[in-house]
């Protein structure tokens, strides 16, 4: 069963609110946190708002940045965040996402001597 995208967005936004609250308690700006984790202030705001579409073209998905953000703030993520991160990280990889030349039995695979 595929999770509802609006439910996932709401869930990531809730995690983002936790991060924003902790950032504000530490009197840090979005720019200061961004500098710590190598992102722009706008990207930090996107994490806090749960806007995963901002990270669609990056090498790492939103959950990776959420974990990094929490680590840099020195906070422990709530259990539900870690469970969501694990389920996102363990998404099955289909054969369609693996390039044909990397598949061992593919006709496009290079044959060695």
Keywords:
single chain; 113 residues; mainly alpha; 434 Repressor (Amino-terminal Domain); 54% helix
What this model shows, in words?
With 113 residues, the protein is mainly α. It is built from 5 helices and no strands. Helices cover 54% and strands 0% of the residues. The longest helix has 21 residues. The chain has one domain: Orthogonal Bundle (434 Repressor (Amino-terminal Domain)).
Compact summary:
The protein is mostly helical and 113 residues long.
Class inferred from helices and paired strands: mainly alpha
| Through-space gap between termini | 45 Å
Overall CATH architecture = Orthogonal Bundle
Number of domains: 1
CATH fold-level topology:
434 Repressor (Amino-terminal Domain)
Order of helices and strands: HHHHH
Largest sheet: none
The whole-angstrom Rg is 18 Å
- Summed up, the helix count is 5
- Write the CATH homologous superfamily: lambda repressor-like DNA-binding domains
Segments where pLDDT lies below 50 for 5+ residues? 89-96
- Which band does the percent of strand residues land in? under 5%
**Name of the CATH first level:** Mainly Alpha
Number of strands: 0
Report helical residue fraction: 40-55%
Shape estimate? elongated
Averaged pLDDT? 76
């Amino acid at each position: 069963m595929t999770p509802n995208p609006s439910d996932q967005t709401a869930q990531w936004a809730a995690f983002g609110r936790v991060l924003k609250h902790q950032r504000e308690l530490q009197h840090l700006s979005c720019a200061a946190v961004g500098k710590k984790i190598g992102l722009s202030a706008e990207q930090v705001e996107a994490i806090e708002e749960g806007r995963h579409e901002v990270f669609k073209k990056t090498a790492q998905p939103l959950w990776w940045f959420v974990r990094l953000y929490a680590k840099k703030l020195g906070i422990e993520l709530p259990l539900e965040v870690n469970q969501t991160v694990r389920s996102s990280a363990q998404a099955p990889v289909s054969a369609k996402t693996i390039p044909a030349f990397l598949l061992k039995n593919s006709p496009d695979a290079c044959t060695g001597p």
